[in-house]
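Course assignment 3, question 2. Fill in each field.
Student: A.L.
Task: Predict the tertiary structure for the chain below.
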Amino acid sequence: MKKQLAALLCGTMLLTAALSGCTMNSPVEGKAETTTAAKTTDAGTSGANGMESEGSKAVSEKAKIGLLAPTLQTEFFINIDDGLKKECEARGWDYVAVSFDNDSATAVTSIENMVTGKCDVIVAMVSDESCDDALRKAQEAGVKIIECGVQTEVFDVCLNTDQYTIGKEIGTMAGEWINSTLDGKGKVVVYTTFQNTDMQNRGNGIQDGLKAAAPDAEILEVVDIGKDVVGSGTTTTETMLQKYPELNCIAAYGDAAAVESSEAAKAAGKSGDNFGIFSCDGTNQALKGIAENDPMHGTIKFEEMGPIMAEYSEKLLAGETFPDPIDFPTQQITSSNVSEFYTAE
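Answer field:
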């Protein structure tokens, strides 16, 4: 992980703004580039209202980082929370994590509370522009904003993920499996959510990727499984299996629903040899299912986010600027390479 992270940070720092969409500026001349140098300034300047000099905020031993996540109930977001918390503890920083439960009004209130609580950096895993005004006010109060997973107009660093592209990769994996296992004649249900543009784009990508990879497959239904991700995979899959006895593939927008769907499919007597489930997040539960030839057959894994969020927090507090979005690395995982990422306990 350290080698991957170092390669990512080094690569992005060497690119210039001439390469739009996945670049960032080089470090400001004379500013610290290392963890140690970034933390050897006056400890009295921590907090949203700390002192600023020449456009940069001094980094203290007691910087405070806030994570704003849509949920803290699924493995994917729990891992991010745990990872970022460990990175902050290692640096002697304070840390707070808040779930806005996929509700924009709650997200806005949480941002305001983080500003009041004197967070120096807010890592905002928002889904659309509904929080832009609150994030802009946070910036005006001196807080640095890291946007992760989606790009809106307000950020100091955007660790971007093209949601349509992610969806298309999910659909492509499903289509390739259908071609190799079901002679291209798959009967598919797509799980998405219409709660925000972010996931709508991913759902559209799933459908387009599937149609391109397996044109003879049939999408039986596109299902909005809502924002309550815990439990929805189980109940929705039970309903779909009753409604469509011929169903043999599910393409889901996230691992939480997909893993539950896999368990529901197994409970209904479906085998991994002729029933496939594909999704995104690269959680350990999904990897385990792929390794054991459960109906779970493919996922998209993101690079470990906690360490990267902490590194960019450090750079922002040291005065570096990143006006262009930075693409977040991902990796497709199927039975062909799951052994590189998962070891049975």
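Instructor remarks: The domain at 163-302 is CATH 3.40.50.2300 (Rossmann fold). The longest strand covers residues 218-224.
Grade: pending
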